[in-house]
Design a protein that fits this description.
Chain lengths: ~160, ~450
């Protein structure tokens, strides 16, 4: 391997264990993400084009009152500081998720996740992971090439397994 | 500082040049092509660089009484809101009416109006709207009427006091009117308008609202005490807020200006909130509070004060005041009602702050025609009621409206300009008509 390839994110990229289609249901996505124990799953259309990521935080949000997950970054004053007054039970959370279980993944995915190119420097990739991104898509000419996940990177840098 | 005399560039006519700078500045503010604080500062710099004002005159034009009051209140609110008292009040009021949606619609309007009388309108809606959305979701009712009602309530409540709405802070600061002057002259009509607003929203939406018993039970199950994040801070903040209000009421006897009271309260609350903490913790804490000061508003005011001083210095505002007097035939009633209605309609369409800031020196210039500064008092109430309530007329009329619309859109609740305006504009005109009757009865 050349030095240039070594210093790019290609060296730590892996194949995604699963991908979602935009038309897959929320119920299916929940099932896949739990099965693979992943922080997020990439969403790819029929031609293999990357369209977004479905992070587990978006699925958690579906079980909460909507206003809690739509915090306005411009107005930190509008964030609810303490929500313990809402006395919801597990049944209430399940009811909220049931209500959207058949909606397509495309309605809930995140299209603002930073996207890596195969030649994105390794250091930039590390900084993304350090800043609380657990999984990043690697995209070339619009197509999903692979993912960089925090677990793969920890295993490589620590020579684990 | 250099002692410089103002000499207009290329010997141009100062009246024309100042007018061009003002029209340019206001034009860009209205077009929203540039952040309003940037264009106000650019306009201010032009006034100095073109020789219409010296730097000394420009600095003297910045009303630090107004700025002090604004910054002081922003600091007090930024610390107070952390204790969760506003969330507590919203939930408590919803439970008071047994979680009946029509009752909640009315109660939240009253809570918003009262909070808004003491806090900035945008802050109030930022605090009340998220809890409202949690409640309407639990009740499975359409949140739109609640948000609409809270926009109105925040602008109505804000009109009642010196500190409730920026136009009042401006009028109070520049004219030297006290907290009591505002409460005694405006609060009576504001109470009537709030009642009319609550009744209108009940007839438009509230009377048809229903929620199933199990959903209401869910809201009744909300534990408002859990919304209080910091009981110690709640006590301190309540104490300081109470002291600030008492100081406002006794301002004349104490010989204190509102800017001093606002900043004094802020300094006291900052001290109480930080005393006993490590130096590092204090810096972090204080920095967070300072970051929540709305610097855009502050720099906007600073720039605007200088732009207006430029046109005032050049004689434009005196000229406009004379023209207005000539148009109204020097009739006090006609002048007052023109100020009320033109402020209302203009404030529904454009930012009311530059309008009010320009009107203040114009009205002051009318003093000789109406028996000196004391005789102008009713005109200040016309200006305040028109400018504050006019903001309800359209979605872009006041910052609180746009803030609520923004939160609504992010939560999947459509908030369209025309849908809002169709109901809001006629309601606003009714409110201004009530003011018209009140002002005629009391002052004219």
């Amino acid at each position: 391997m050349s030095r240039q390839t070594d210093a790019s994110c290609r060296s730590i990229m892996s194949a995604p264990p699963a991908v979602l289609k935009p038309t897959d249901s929320v119920a299916f996505a929940l099932h896949s993400i739990v099965k693979h124990r992943l922080p997020a799953l990439p969403v790819v259309d029929a031609d293999g084009h990357y369209v977004g990521m479905l992070p587990r935080s978006r699925l958690i949000a579906l079980a909460m009152p909507r206003v809690l997950s739509h915090e306005d970054e411009k107005h930190p004053l509008g964030h609810l500081l303490e929500v313990g007054f809402i006395q919801d039970t597990l049944t209430d959370l399940q009811a909220r998720v049931d209500a959207v279980a058949n909606e397509p993944v495309s309605r809930h995915m995140d299209t603002d996740v930073p996207v890596l190119q195969p030649d994105t420097p390794l250091m930039n990739t590390m900084l993304f992971l350090y800043r609380r991104r657990n999984i990043l898509p690697v995209v070339e000419n619009g197509k999903l090439l692979g993912i960089v996940s925090v677990w793969d990177v920890l295993a490589r840098i620590g020579r684990v397994g | 500082m250099h002692e410089a005399h103002s000499s207009v560039i290329f010997g141009l006519d100062p009246l024309w040049l100042a007018t061009v700078v003002m029209i340019f500045t206001y034009g860009v503010i209205i077009s929203e092509r540039l952040n309003r604080s940037i264009i106000a500062l650019l306009g201010a710099m032009l006034m100095i660089m073109l020789g219409l004002l010296t730097q000394e005159q420009a600095v003297a034009a910045i009303d630090f009484n107004t700025i002090g009051l604004l910054v002081g209140m922003m600091i007090i609110v930024s610390i107070t809101r952390k204790c969760g008292v506003f969330e507590y009040l919203a939930i408590w009021s919803a439970k008071l009416v047994k979680a009946n949606p029509a009752g909640i619609l009315a109660m939240l309007a009253v809570v918003t109006a009262v909070a808004s009388a003491f806090l900035d309108n945008v802050t109030t809606v930022l605090l009340v709207v998220p809890v409202t959305l949690v409640i309407t979701e639990a009740l499975s009712v359409n949140p739109y009427p609640f948000l609409f009602s809270q926009i109105f309530a925040s602008n109505i409540g804000g009109t009642a006091t010196l500190v409730g709405d920026p136009p009042n802070i401006l009028i109070g600061g520049q004219v030297g009117l006290s907290f009591n002057d505002f409460v005694l002259n405006l609060a009576p009509v504001i109470v009537v308008i709030l009642a009319v607003h609550v009744i209108s929203t009940h007839f438009i939406w509230g009377r048809r609202m229903t929620a199933a018993a199990d959903l209401r039970a869910r809201v009744m199950g909300f534990d408002e005490k859990k919304a209080i994040t910091d009981p110690r801070l709640l006590k301190l903040a309540s104490l300081v807020l109470a002291l600030v209000i008492v100081a406002f009421v006794l301002a004349r006897q104490l010989g204190l200006e509102s800017g001093t009271i606002g900043m004094g309260g802020a300094a006291l609350l900052l001290m109480l909130d930080n005393i006993g903490k490590s130096a590092e913790h204090q810096s972090e804490n204080v920095l967070k509070v300072y970051n929540e000061i709305e610097w855009i508003t502050i720099f906007f005011f600073v720039g605007l004060f200088i732009v207006i001083a430029g046109v005032e210095h050049a004689g434009l505002l005196k000229l406009l005041a004379d023209k207005l007097l000539a148009a109204t035939g020097g009739d006090f009633t006609v002048t007052g009602m023109s100020v009320l209605w033109s402020s209302a309609v203009l404030s529904a369409i454009v930012d009311n702050i530059p309008f009010v800031a320009t009107m203040i020196p114009m009205i002051k210039a009318m003093a000789p025609a109406f028996g000196g500064p004391e005789g102008l008092m009713p005109l200040w109430w016309c200006l305040s009621l028109g400018a504050c309530l006019g903001g309800n007329g359209t979605l872009i009329g006041a910052s609180a409206n746009l803030t609520v619309a923004g939160i609504a859109e992010r939560n999947g609740i459509p908030f369209r300009f025309m849908t809002y305006t169709k109901i809001a504009f006629p309601l606003m005109l009714i409110h201004v008509a009530i003011c018209n009757a009140y002002l005629m009865w009391r002052y004219f």
